Amino acid sequence: QVQLQESGGGSVQAGGSLRLSCAASGYRHNRYSMAWFRQTPGKGREGVAGIESDGTIHYADSVKGRFTISQDNAKNTLYLEMNSLKPEDTAMYYCAASFRILKQPLADNEYDYWGQGTQVTVSS
What we know:
four-stranded antiparallel sheet, mainly beta
């Protein structure tokens, strides 16, 4: 069974940086896509950044130029480097994994496995 565990969230002032990590375990396939999503109370999950199984990277327009997604296959870990953080980046951040061929890499219904989330709070 695939398990995902996020870490690295916290509180930071606007303009600051955080690095999220997602440790993956339990998967048998060596071809999978992973992504970061975020969610605020009362809203649906928003795709932030994703890496497809072929290495193609996608970013939401709202984070382009500020966030960087990467993965360390040797460590089975996904990262999200977040710079120039804004108050509107405040959310619970989740990592997700999919073994499908993705049609919409930043759509939450494309992903089958989810972590528990890590909170990011950006104050002005």
